[in-house]
Amino acid sequence: NSCVIRHITKTKSPAYKYGSHNTSHSCCQCVSPSYSSSHSAKYLATGASFRHLAFSFRMGRSTVASIIKHMIKILWNMLQPLHMPEPTTATFLNVSADFMKVWNFPNCIGAVDGKHVKVIAPQHSGSMYFNYKHYFSIVLQGVCDANYKLLVIDVGGYGKQSDGGTFQSSNLYKRIHQNKLNVPNPDSLPGTNVRAPYVFIADEAYPLMPNLLKPYNRRNRSLEHINFNQRLSRARKTIECTFGIMYAKWRLLSKAIETTEKTADDIIKAICILHNTILDREGFQRHLTLVTDAVPRDQMFELPRGRQLGEGQRVRDIFCNYVNFFPISYETA
């Protein structure tokens, strides 16, 4: 991560000027940017406790905690405009072209999934952050492109909501549902004159929507439905791989984050933006991609009803017909 640290310290941004922040972070002002970046990178990469880092760097625990808390905010504010800007219509069109080229899935503008990130029980939170797996967590919702880069994230869902609508209570759901993500207008599926909307793809735990596709139910499936599910699952695993890469590189995600819930949100956002920064600067090697076990699933989201569900089924059937008309070989794909 040394090259990324150099990139951070060389980036010209007002957010990196310690003097521009309030004086409560005066302890940070006597520490060089590169040193602060090193502290933060080691914390995120190793998951070492503040006490351990304080001993390693010969600084007080509260000083180390303050530096890291300050630095992770700077990382997001400075790097987000460069490495996770608001997706434009042109961005989504490029993403769709990549999904078709790499994963043979048409009109796809991102794969969606959620991840529970462990935290120490927040004070006075009761059971709000206690999830169905019996630990406290904050939920990260993410959308990635065909090459494991995060396009949009939503951090801060309560772990408790795993049974009742984490996705539908998120800003990400509202932006997808209300079409506020610069999604391109419907277009012809490649090689046909059949028009279809641009869609996000997800697994069976998500709601079926006109612009969010999920697999067909496992019961009463036809061969055509099975073929569609295989093609969708193949493309959707990009988001599982994205989380797998992040967990392998940033070991803090494998431990319970020992901060307030607000700082934990900032830490998760910092890791997401560092993930994108590394991909942008170093690229990726698909054959080295870490495919981890699937994220533990339950029925996380309530299903939509009525007109929206009916339109979602109609759109999914269009994609199902396309997939079966243009089959691929999974041995060579």
Total E-strand runs: 7
User: What does the overall shape look like?
Assistant: elongated
| Structural class by sheet pairing and helices | alpha/beta
Oligomer: single chain
Major pleated sheet: 5 strands, mixed
Give the domain tally: 2
**Count the helices. How many?**
10
Mean pLDDT: 80
Residue fraction in strands = 5-15%
Order of helices and strands: HHHHHHEEEHEEEEHHH
Helix content class: 40-55%
**What are the low-pLDDT stretches, counting only 5+ consecutive residues below 50?**
18-26, 159-164, 287-306
Q: In angstroms, what separates the terminal alpha carbons? A: 32 Å
* Integer-rounded radius of gyration: 21 Å
Structure description:
The structure is a single chain. It is built from ten helices and seven strands. The chain has helices at residues 2-10, 26-29, 33-46, 50-57, 61-83, 89-103, 171-177, 223-249, 261-282, 307-325, and strands spanning 108-118, 137-144, 150-158, 187-188, 195-196, 199-201, 212-213. The strands form two sheets. The protein has a five-stranded mixed β-sheet, with helices on both faces. Helix 4 crosses helix 5 (61-83), helix 5 crosses helix 9 and helix 8 (223-249) crosses helix 10. The longest helix has 27 residues, at 223-249. The two termini are 32 Å apart. Its main location: nucleus. It comes from Acanthoscelides obtectus (Bean weevil). Residues 112-276 form the DDE Tnp4 domain.
Summarize this structure briefly.
The protein has 333 residues and is α/β, with parallel strands linked by helices. The chain has helices spanning 2-10, 26-29, 33-46, 50-57, 61-83, 89-103, 171-177, 223-249, 261-282, 307-325; strands spanning 108-118, 137-144, 150-158, 187-188, 195-196, 199-201, 212-213. The protein has two domains: 2-83; 89-325, no CATH class.
